[in-house]
């Protein structure tokens, strides 16, 4: 079976709240493998590339500001159907309605800020995963 890789980020809200271990625990408990892991503070250039699909949207500026406000844990996760599998673990974008049992549903909430803070990012397709992994981990 083809192994698939996905880029997961524990966002600055997740790192600040001490939830890196909880997110990694859920990924490992699901049975996926961690193949790279790094804590770092991303700059605006990296984040503009990372979120290129959102160019022109009103929340892009606040999103980049939030994502560069502190360290993120960047993780490459591997396993058959890991892209779809992690998106399922993460839950819906809006943490208010994300299903209980998911990372966002259990651990995130709406704070009424300009950008939704929802603990994690996960690549949404094989093309996005390849692009994002090359961006965050050029040596992989
Ligand atoms: P996801 O992270 O679920 O793939 P996305 O790629 O559409 O969601 O958006 C990236 C992030 O931007 C998302 O995790 C939270 C934030 N965001 C998305 N839509 C938003 C909106 N309408 N208002 C504020 N923040 C938003
Ligand atoms: Mg997305």
From TrEMBL:
The enzyme's E.C. designation: 2.7.4.6
Keyword Transferase: yes
Cofactor: Mg(2+)
List of catalytic residues: 121
Keyword Nucleotide-binding set for record: yes
GO cellular component assignments: cytoplasm
Protein name: Nucleoside diphosphate kinase
């Amino acid at each position: 079976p083809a192994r698939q890789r996905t880029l997961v980020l524990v966002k600055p809200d997740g790192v600040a709240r001490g939830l890196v271990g909880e997110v990694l625990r859920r990924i490992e408990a699901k049975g996926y493998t961690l193949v790279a892991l790094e804590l770092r503070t991303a700059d605006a250039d990296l984040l503009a590339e990372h979120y290129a699909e959102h160019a022109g949207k009103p929340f892009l500026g606040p999103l980049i500001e939030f994502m560069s406000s502190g360290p993120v844990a960047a993780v490459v996760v591997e396993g058959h159907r890991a892209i779809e599998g992690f998106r399922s673990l993460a839950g819906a974008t809006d943490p208010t309605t994300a299903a209980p049992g998911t990372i966002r549903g259990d651990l995130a909430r709406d704070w009424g800020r300009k950008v939704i803070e929802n603990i994690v990012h996960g690549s949404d397709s094989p093309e996005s995963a390849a692009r994002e992994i090359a961006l965050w981990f050029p040596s992989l």
